[in-house]
Amino acid sequence: MDLCHVPATREKGWYLALMAPNAKGPNYAWLDPSRLYCHPQGLQDCVADLLQPFQGDAIDVVAGIDAMGFILGAAAAAALRKGFLAIRKAGHLCVQTAAQPYSDYSGREKVMEVRTDAISPGVRILLVDQWVETGGTMRAAIELVERLGGVVAGVAAICIENSEGGKWIQERYKCSHCVPPRLQPCFDQHQ
């Protein structure tokens, strides 16, 4: 699909076709959404679809998860006219931080951190990441926010898979993603 083409009918998720499959092997995510982010209407529609369930909700700040969540998170923050907080992989922030270990989708052990002065008790945070596959990364972000007294106002990602971790998140938090129900099984099976 070319980066200027916009379909005549734009139903939720039309832009998912812009993503490219993994061509590098098992150490990489199974889809790359960078072309979606390059497509002006695709990115706008993706962000609008992610934010639609939160219209009218109290959100104080949008937090994006390192690194690809920064793109959607910053776009969502701009659309909501809210501030943006980066939740980083450990070792990148030069200020006081709270840290949380986790296992990512590939099973690698990592540590996530957030600056301690950015979240005060009661602050309502919309957490945004590119993808929730096993739920480990998002769950670590949730734990950081809640440990610092923040309230998770919601979770948004292009896809939230029906994995054990994805289900855990969806059962406990208001969630939004872009995959139409009829396509969810394909995304869960990485097809």
Automatic annotation (TrEMBL):
Q: Does the keyword Metal-binding apply?
A: no
InterPro entries in UniProt: Adenine_PRTase (IPR050120), PRTase-like (IPR029057), PRTase_dom (IPR000836)
Q: Could you tell me the keywords of this UniProt record?
A: Cytoplasm, Glycosyltransferase, Membrane, Purine salvage, Transferase, Transmembrane, Transmembrane helix
Q: What Pfam families does this protein's entry cite?
A: Pribosyltran (PF00156)
Gene Ontology biological-process annotations: purine ribonucleoside salvage
Intracellular or extracellular location(s): Cytoplasm
SUPFAM superfamilies, per database record:
PRTase-like (SSF53271)
Q: Which GO terms describe its molecular function?
A: adenine phosphoribosyltransferase activity
The Gene Ontology CC terms held by the record are: cytoplasm
Enumerate the spans annotated as Phosphoribosyltransferase domain.
56-178
The entry's protein name is adenine phosphoribosyltransferase
Its lineage reads: Eukaryota, Metazoa, Chordata, Craniata, Vertebrata
The record's gene field reads Apt1
